[in-house]
Amino acid sequence: MADGKANRKKHVLLAVRILVVAAGLVLAAIWVERKRADLVAAFARMDWWVFACVFAAFCASQIVVGLRWWLLLRTQGIFISFWVAVRLYFLGWFYNNVMLGSVGGDLFRVWYVTKHTEKKFEAGLSVFVDRAIGLLSTLIIAFFFYVAFLWPEKLPLVNTVFQYWWLVVLAIAAAVAGLSAHRRGRALLGRLWSSLCRVWKKLISAGRLYVGSPFTILAAFVLTVVLQIGTITGFWFLGRSIGIEASIKYYYVFFTLVWVIGAVPVSVAGAFVVEGALAVLFVTMAHVPEADAGALALLQRFVWLLASLPGAVIHLTGAHLPRHFSVDGEEPDK
After folding, report:
1. Labelling 129: which of 50, 77, 221, 306 has CA 20 to 30 A away?
2. 8 Å CB contact between 256 and 230
3. What is the pLDDT of residue 155?
4. Residues 163-211: pLDDT tens digits?
């Protein structure tokens, strides 16, 4: 019975994500038809050499992110080779961006890496820590640049949240109280609480495992911040090439915010949610023309999809399978 409920829940979540993508496709088609001439003009202004450099830099940054994960694995005594870690990372990136499934690329990464080591728990936890470092650094970049450059007049909605934080807390408490009054609401709160407890247990376990390697964690964090700032700077150059005059400070805040939003599994790879949020932020807050903001959002997605191609090749050729890997430092299978 429990398995049946879990399967139904997965199917419902997958259906919701597909519906979000379908609705996004319809709305995007309508918007593109309405803004076709302006979009064509924006793409015509783009410098393809700039695009090529941004794409190359983004692919290189993904290799370095693979290095980050490789360092986390080695800290736990899991000695797969650097290029194995990079291949698995690109495979996860491919799954994240193009696969219609209810399981993210990180879980595929967990699945495959645990096939190549006896340290199953540590390997799985390394993926969790890797993602946590990425999300935390993203939030810190967004918060720092927002406070440093856009506070207090540029984003009134966010400022209101900070100013009236007690109302936010009161609203959350009221929502919890309202849900607690109904059986289904209590069940939902129970599931949310269980999820939070699982995340907390993972954090505690990660802290215990990595407490002896603080410099590795610090190096991974600093590396991530540098990579993300570099990636966003590349998109600023790309935006400039299509005629967007907005300051780079908007990029550092808006891109990081939508990356966090895209991590919420309400769509497939955050499709249309990320693009829509990014375009709205640039139009409403940075006063960028609608077509230019939309073109920038589409270019980001195009870079992501192109960068997924190595993962597709790895998937098709089976380069992620155990016979190609050394297991905890042993010689690879022949």
Report:
1. 306
2. no
3. 56
4. 555 666 677 777 767 767 777 777 777 777 787 777 677 667 766 777 7
- Spatial CA neighbour of 125 closest among 59, 91, 76, 60: 76
Would you state the torsion angle of the CA atoms of residues 153, 261, 196, 93, taken in this order, to the nearest 10 degrees?
-140
Q: How far, in Å, CA of 84 to CA of 333, rounded?
A: 14
Alpha carbon 58 to its chain's center:
14
Specify burial of residue 183 (Cβ count, 10 A radius: 0-12, 13-18, 19+): exposed
Contact 109, 92 (CB under 8 A): yes
User: Which tokens go with 95?
Assistant: 């799954």
The predicted structure's pLDDT at residue 332: 44
Q: Which amino acid is at 19?
A: L
Interacting residues of 233 by C-beta distance below 8 A, sequence separation 6+: 248, 251
Q: Kindly give the interhelix angle for 273-285 and 248-262, rounded to the nearest 10 degrees.
A: 150
